[in-house]
Amino acid sequence: MSRGARQARRFLFKRFPYYLIYRERDGMVEVVAVMHARRHPGYWRHR
């Protein structure tokens, strides 16, 4: 797992089966990926 992937956090939407993968950098929030929670987990890590 890369350094950036370790620092990434995920947020699960309550109404929809999607995760928002994000990380905080320099006082800002950077969105890394929006992924379906039930399909191909982990696919965003290699992008």
Describe this structure in words.
This protein has one domain (3-46). The protein is built from 1 helix and 3 strands, in the order αβββ. The protein has one helix at 3-7; strands spanning 9-12, 18-25, 28-36. A 3-stranded antiparallel beta sheet has the order 1-2-3.
Which terms would index this structure?
11% helix; 47 residues; flat; 3 strands; mainly beta
Topology record:
Elements: H1 3-7, E1 9-12, E2 18-25, E3 28-36
Antiparallel strand pairs: 1-2, 2-3
Shape: flat
Poorly predicted parts: none
- Helix content bin: 10-25%
Which strand order spans the largest sheet, edge to edge or round the barrel? 1-2-3
Write down the Rg: 11 Å
Question: How would you concisely characterize the structure shown here?
Answer:
With 47 residues, the protein is mostly beta strands. It has one helix at residues 3-7; strands at residues 9-12, 18-25, 28-36.
